[in-house]
């Protein structure tokens, strides 16, 4: 069994248990029955069907378009392999995410991720199913695995998902660290490098006027550095008072999951 098949669920379960103990994992404030449906369906379908299918399809395309290329990059330095994954997976996901808050039809594919009025590990995989099927970074990752980056990808994806899961959880691991004055220089570096609960919750804030929310920024997944580099970062070390979408009417679970096949 590949290590990420164990470690990513273990990290997810660890944060889920913390939420169960401290922030009511199953009963978030303002959750609806539609929220539960969207989260359950999108999580199961992504992990059980869409992601494996994309990785296999990407390998098939590579074999068809570049015969004999399997394992071609396995011998390059590990630092170069990490760099390729950061650029073609994580940075590409940053631009896909950013485009989804800019292009209206793409936002319809991403809206489900913001429709819940709370943050939780439950929302990590919450998205329209076509949003994931079209996500360029997943296809690039499949191609890189075919080219020989599989062993490095395993470690990379465990670290990436640990950061993403931690950034979505409403058990804010960064909050006590901000209160330790001696750690302030370290946290200055951390919050400009990876996504944290403070920087990512700002992206999910409901009210643009609260001084924290940065709905049109803070797009980073593993690396928040992309936001710093491309000018979309907002760092306040505070958390928005409310989570959700401002000035948009709710839509059904079916529309969240399957737009444009199901309309609002």
How many helices? The count is 12
Strand content: under 5%
Mean pLDDT reading: 96
Work out the count of structural domains.
1
Give helix and strand order, one letter per element, not per position.
Answer: HHHHHHHHHHHH
Report the helical percentage. 55-70%
Query: What distance lies between the first and last C-alpha atoms, to the nearest angstrom?
Result: 41 Å
Shape summary: globular
* Cα-based radius of gyration, to the nearest Å: 18 Å
Number of strands: 0
Largest sheet descriptor: none
The helix-and-strand class reads mainly alpha
Poorly predicted segments: none
Describe the structure.
With 264 residues, the protein is mainly α. Helix content is 59%, strand content 0%. The protein is globular and about 55 Å long. The N and C termini lie far apart (41 Å). The relative contact order is 0.15.
Topology:
Elements: H1 3-22, H2 33-65, H3 78-100, H4 104-110, H5 112-115, H6 129-133, H7 136-168, H8 175-178, H9 184-191, H10 197-203, H11 225-230, H12 253-258
């Amino acid at each position: 069994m590949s290590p990420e098949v164990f470690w990513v669920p273990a990290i997810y379960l660890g944060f889920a248990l913390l939420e169960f103990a401290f922030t009511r994992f199953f009963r978030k404030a303002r959750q609806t029955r539609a929220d539960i449906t969207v989260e359950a369906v999108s999580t199961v379908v992504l992990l059980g069907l869409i992601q494996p299918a994309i990785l296999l399809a990407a390998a098939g395309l590579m074999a068809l378009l570049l015969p004999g290329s399997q394992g071609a990059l396995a011998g390059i330095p590990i630092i170069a392999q990490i760099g390729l994954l950061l650029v073609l997976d994580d940075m590409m996901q940053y631009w896909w995410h950013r485009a989804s808050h800019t292009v209206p039809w793409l936002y319809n594919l991403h809206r489900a991720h913001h429709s819940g009025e709370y943050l939780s590990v439950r929302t990590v995989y919450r998205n329209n199913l076509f949003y994931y099927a079209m996500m360029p970074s997943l296809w690039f990752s499949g191609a890189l695995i075919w080219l020989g980056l599989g062993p490095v990808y395993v470690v990379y994806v465990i670290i990436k998902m640990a950061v993403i899961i931690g950034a979505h959880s409403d058990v804010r691991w960064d909050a006590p660290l901000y209160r330790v004055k001696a750690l302030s220089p370290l946290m200055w570096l951390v919050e400009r490098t990876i996504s944290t609960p403070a920087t990512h919750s700002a992206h999910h804030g409901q009210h643009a006027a609260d001084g924290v929310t940065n709905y049109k920024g803070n797009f980073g997944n593993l690396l928040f550095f992309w936001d710093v580099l491309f000018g979309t970062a907002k760092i306040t070390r505070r958390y928005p008072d409310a989570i959700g979408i401002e000035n948009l009417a709710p839509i059904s679970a079916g529309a969240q999951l399957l737009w444009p096949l199901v309309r609002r």
